[in-house]
# Entry
Amino acid sequence: MRICRFDDNQLGIVVGEEVCDVSGLLDMLPTTRWPVPLGDSLIVHLPQVIEAANKLLPHASRKPLDSVKLQAPVPNPTKVLAAPVNYKAHAEEAKRDPGIHQNTHNLEITGFDAPVDKFGLFLKANSSVVGPAEGVALHFPGRRNDHEVEVVVVIGTRCKNIPRDRAYDVIAGYTMGLDMTVRGGEDRSFRKSADSYAVLGPWLTTVDEIANPEDIPFSLTVNSKLRQSSNTKFLTAGIPHLIALATSCYTLYPGDLIYTGTPEGVGPVEPGDVMHIESAVLGSMDVKARIT
Ligand code: MN
# Structure
């Protein structure tokens, strides 16, 4: 199932080139009171929501996909995790270009299976998450604000200490993401956490629709010029590796996001630029960069 959030917090199911409005299902989610339980409420209740959505779909009103404003499909992750230098060709371009990694670690990883085993994962502020319709508000004019297109894992269940061979059991689905990054000397969590620097969309594709998560193609163009094109089969640390590493440290909650890393071709965007992200498996979206 392809689940989206659109317009004014409407819940939709994407079927072909249309969005079926199933917002009535949001009444299934509990109203909460303080302290709010951790986890994105929709993802916590996803199995029940999907079951009810299947019954509602034939009767739902429909809108053309290109007529709605797509919001982030998972608005309330407790954590936005991300993998650094997780494609070999991106690691090589980062070594060549000090503008990418001027303040970060020595990229030498002798003795480690993958860069994440040396560097770990990093966190982006969960308040930085937006959908494609909102676009990216460039916060550091005059500096290099780079696009990093990535496949994003959406965790489906509360979990800790998950071994690699059980990692796929804890995933609800996948979506595309942009790990926007201003290059410079500040800590990575600062440079990657400005409002709107974690784009998520176009929708959540549930695991049953993904034939092979280790073979998801994706690309990014800026103003129609190809910048990045790769496939999750080229990940250095694969998805089970990332989940095992993450859950060795953190309890993950439903809706937590893991940005799996960006391939080669990262580069700057300027106000007015349109980033087009496309995946034959996860869908496509346009994301406009603008001034704050
Ligand atoms: Mn990244």
